[in-house]
Amino acid sequence: MDHFATSLCAVRALDPDIPVAVNRPWLVTAAAERFTSGFNASILYAVKANPSPWVLDALWAGGVRAFDVASDVECALVRGRFPDATLAFMHPVKSRKAIRRAYFEHGVRIFALDSADELAKILDETDGAKDLTLVIRMAVENTAADLPLAAKFGIAGEDAVALLRAARAATREDLGISFHVGSQCMDPNAWLKALADVSEIIRKAAREPPDLSLFFHAIETAFETMPVTMNCELWAEPGRALVAEATSIVARVELRKGGALYINDGSYGTLFDATHVAWRYPVRVLRANGDSVAAASTPFQLYGPTCDSIDAVDGLVDLPADIREGDFIEFGMLGAYGVSMATRFNGFGDVVDVTSAEMPWASQYADAVEEVCPQGRLLAFKRQG
Fold first, then answer.
1. Which domain holds residue 294?
2. What is the pLDDT of residues 63-74, one digit of tens each?
3. Residue 148 in domain
4. Domain count, the chain
5. Which of 180, 206, 232 is the last residue of a domain?
6. Which of 150, 163, 228, 255 gives 142 a disulfide partner, CB atoms 3.0 to 4.6 angstroms apart?
7. Residue 77's pLDDT band (cuts 50, 70, 90)
8. With contact defined as beta carbons under 8 Å apart, do 264 and 340 qualify?
9. pTM, 2 dp
10. How does pLDDT run across 212-233, given as a tens digit for each residue?
11. 2 in a domain, yes or no?
């Protein structure tokens, strides 16, 4: 590539009869430095904008260390140039071969998606990897953009809530959200609106419960405005909110068969909700002889004790990698509809009391979320990370 001091110098020297691209790498580096120093965010360059090697080198010189790649070719290009770069495969629809090569050949661990089918593809082609960062592409308003980009990609509403929950259950790593307000958007408020809309989806997916007193206040205030309060009593009939955290279920591992554990409780016993409603109850492993269990975890399929093939927990449960026959799995938050819904099919079950004030789930799962119970003090938990 020829180098000249100015465009005019290039014209004078070349006298070109075809168009000539005049590159200014220093401007790319300056722009990169402005973003990396001025924006409190991780900066990922969208390689599709210009994949030229000189652009990538100028960005690297300006401090950019992460790249938004949209194809297998872009993965190979950036990884071949910068072995330590972070690659995020942000195209919401990818071929199966591209996913597999990105993961196994180029070390990509970040994948975007906007559908349950794409989630299934990613999990299939990475062989069920648990070290994925999954980024859900949300559909947001594009009215402020000169070039709207909302028609082709993005998920919204209850579908987005369901996909967020499915993605959270599929990985032990971070869960992300992305959106595009459209190209050439000149209104900063477009991002405010998009972030507010996305925040609402996150709240619905996480279902973080407000303080219980707020529920009391809202109901009591509304009741006072009713035209029947003169001789009327307000009744409340809570069930799960009062008893959910009061009981845990301890089930014994009867057999480990590879990635499957056969335990002595299940869908016909006290784990009906855990098997058929697909809630993720907090779990821990108890070893009767007091030996410690492995810190590393592995996803397991859990099967109940009956002869019925549907007696199985929906989805995989992360448990210590060295779990074995004779270990006990304690499922928390089953004080509601656990023992009360158990049958005696094949004849399993017993009940005991404990007097300890221990709340094991509080230390194991730090972020309380509403999952098992709609209101309450410490209701259910999601994994950190």
1. 240-382
2. 999 999 999 999
3. yes
4. 2
5. 206
6. 150
7. very high
8. no
9. 0.60
10. 777 788 888 888 887 875 678 7
11. no
Q: How far apart are CA 115 and CA 60, in angstroms?
A: 33
Q: Copy the structure tokens of residue 70.
A: 């949209």
* Residue 327 in tokens: 């270990």
CATH code for the domain in which residue 78 is found: 3.20.20.10
Pick from 332, 249, 327: which is nearest to 288 by CA? Answer: 327
On the 0-12 / 13-18 / 19+ scale of CB atoms within 10 A, 355 is exposed
Which backbone phi and psi does 171 adopt, to 5 degrees? -140, 150
Average pLDDT over all residues of the chain: 82
Write down how long the chain is: 385
pLDDT of residue 47: 94
